Amino acid sequence: MQLPCAIFGHKPDKTRVWNDNVDFRAPCIRCGAAMLRDERKNWRLFDDEMDGASNRKQHRHEKGEEL
Q: DSSP state, 7?
């Protein structure tokens, strides 16, 4: 985690939001950490144990495809 995230918290890059069939997700604009928008429409870090689901689509970048 970078210092700005430690001080101010993570901030989603809203220009890179995508839908994984369950939630909206985006990387943190400061450090690149995976984030998701929860049912209350708040952004938080993606937690593999809590948020992992078989019906989530991988992002095209996670599949190794080129832009």
A: H
Measured CA angle at 57 (ends 34, 44), to 5 deg? 25
pLDDT per residue over 10-65, tens digit each?
999 999 999 888 889 999 999 999 999 988 999 999 988 888 776 677 766 555 44
Residue whose C-alpha is closest to residue 31's, from 45, 43, 48: 45
Ramachandran category for residue 32: left, alpha or beta (phi over 0 → left; psi -120 to 50 → alpha):
left
Q: How many helices (H) and strands (E) does the chain have?
A: 2, 4
Rounded to whole angstroms, the Cα distance separating 38 from 63 reads 24
